[in-house]
């Protein structure tokens, strides 16, 4: 009868342990030595730079001003899309709403180029390459490029809302949106549930949609058609099915708000951002 060799097992375990120690030492030798980073020394506070939503960057040293768009900066970020309004330069529109200046520039160009009377405006998509070039220039300079057609301008406005962090209307509970039966119901819900910056944005957008709907005979875009193309851009639901259901409710909400705006306001051309900012500021205490 043979018994297990305890000595062999001990030798095997010892050899395995030695091999593990050998590999551990090899890994330690291969790792680069850790570099200790000390605290900064000789620090001087030379400037305090802030971003003002209505005046751009403030406090930029003179030697850096040629490299920074001090007053004309469209945003404190490197992009004007996907950025909250708190980080963007704003101006007042004709109704006193604080709106990102870039939207007012796009609106002005859209109106000047006859976009309101263009058939299918906000429904027909522009050439992808043209829209990308326009986005790139807007992100770098905040200036709407020349030779951009009205469908591209309309698409950029929708894209701005679609990429707005948090969505413009996501703060509205779906059940409360569904219960809105009248135009006044919709207005009250938005006034109570939306923050002032988003309420101002919505008012600007609704009046833009109303201006489009006024030209229905020419552009074939009535209130319901305009609401339909804008609704998916006003929310950011992750679930496609939920997004589709909510978009229908948002479409009905927007449709009633547009109808309300048509009854309440007469058509008026948008103010230029620079003049609207100064006139509204002068009117405010």
UniProtKB/TrEMBL annotation:
The lineage is: Eukaryota, Viridiplantae, Streptophyta, Embryophyta, Tracheophyta
The UniProt annotation puts the region (Disordered) at: 264-285
Keywords, alphabetical:
GTPase activation
Select a single GO molecular function from the record's annotations and give it: GTPase activator activity
Q: Which residues form the signal peptide?
A: none
Q: Which InterPro entries match?
A: CRIB_dom, CRIB_dom_sf, Rho_GTPase_activation_prot, RhoGAP_dom, RopGAP1-5
Q: Does the keyword Transcription apply?
A: no
Gene3D superfamilies per record: CRIB domain (3.90.810.10), Rho GTPase activation protein (1.10.555.10)
Ranges for domain CRIB = 37-50
User: Which SUPFAM superfamilies does the entry mention?
Assistant: GTPase activation domain, GAP
Q: Which PROSITE patterns match?
A: CRIB, RHOGAP
Q: Which GO terms describe its biological process?
A: signal transduction
Residues of the Rho-GAP domain: 83-265
Q: Residue spans with biased composition (Low complexity)? A: 273-285
What is the protein's species of origin? Panicum miliaceum (Proso millet)
| Record-given protein name | Rho GTPase-activating protein 3-like
């Amino acid at each position: 009868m043979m018994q297990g060799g305890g000595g062999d097992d001990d030798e095997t375990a010892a050899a395995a342990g030695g091999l593990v120690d050998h590999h551990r030492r090899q890994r330690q030798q291969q790792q680069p030595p850790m570099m200790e980073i000390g605290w900064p020394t000789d620090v001087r506070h030379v400037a305090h730079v802030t971003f003002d939503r209505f005046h751009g960057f403030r406090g930029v040293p003179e030697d850096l001003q040629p490299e920074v768009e001090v007053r004309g900066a469209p945003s404190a970020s490197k992009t004007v899309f996907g950025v909250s309004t708190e980080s963007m330069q704003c101006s007042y529109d004709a109704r006193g709403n604080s709106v990102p200046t870039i939207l007012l520039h796009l609106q002005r160009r859209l109106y000047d180029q006859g976009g309101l009377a263009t058939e299918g405006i906000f429904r027909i998509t522009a050439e992808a390459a043209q829209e990308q070039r326009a986005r790139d220039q807007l992100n770098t300079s905040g200036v709407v490029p020349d030779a951009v057609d009205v469908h591209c301008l309309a698409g950029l406005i929708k894209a701005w809302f679609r990429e707005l962090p948090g969505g413009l209307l996501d703060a509205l509970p779906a059940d409360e949106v569904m219960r809105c039966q009248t135009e006044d119901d919709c207005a009250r819900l938005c006034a109570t549930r939306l923050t002032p910056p988003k309420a101002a944005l919505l008012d600007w957008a609704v009046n833009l949609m109303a201006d489009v709907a006024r030209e229905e005979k020419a552009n074939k875009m009535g209130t319901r058609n305009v609401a339909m193309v804008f609704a998916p851009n006003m929310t950011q639901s992750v679930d496609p099915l939920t997004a589709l259901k909510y978009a229908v409710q948002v479409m009905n909400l927007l449709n009633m708000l547009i109808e309300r705006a048509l009854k309440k306001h007469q058509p008026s051309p948008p103010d230029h951002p620079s003049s609207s900012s100064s006139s509204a500021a002068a009117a405010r205490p």
